[in-house]
Amino acid sequence: MSRQLLPPNRTPLEAALADAGAFSLDPTPLRWLADAGRCPVEFLPWLAWARSVEGFDAADTEEKQRALIRQAVDIHKRKGTVAAVRDIFRALGLGEVTIETGRAGYRRDGTRRRTAFNKRGTRAEGWAEYRVVCYSRLTVQQAAIARAMLADIAPARCHLFELDFRQAALTRNGLAKRDGSYTRGTT
Known about the structure:
Helix content: 25-40%
Largest sheet: 3 strands, mixed
Structural class: alpha+beta
Number of helices: 6
Distance between the termini: 61 Å
Number of strands: 3
């Protein structure tokens, strides 16, 4: 409290308490705690918790963590949509994805697709199942994190059938080794 805020009939004790409690604190840095771009690194987990960020532990760099926090509000607004699933994969740096829904294999025009994802049978069979085709190579750990995030972000009525990343070939260039951290493309 400041001495200027006290009434004219203040007592000497009140004036002394006002002088003792006067702080010369600049509150501007406190505003930075709520900004994902300027928040100190050690406070990022708390900011992520305050904004209910899903998959914060999956982000392995500071830039990815800040991107997840920045997108948290938009993702919560669109939770349960295809766009939210795509945004999560982009924010984590896992690249672009294609989401295929309904295992019955029928397109909108009534023609039928023949892939390993489709089932034989009636039109209604497998309508709530979907798969995510990722075009970047994922480790087993990244795939497990992506599955957990999809359980939180995807519509509750839908079931993830497969996380397919066979489009990103596992080449023998020394970057991806056969030590159990990579699979051949599906989980």
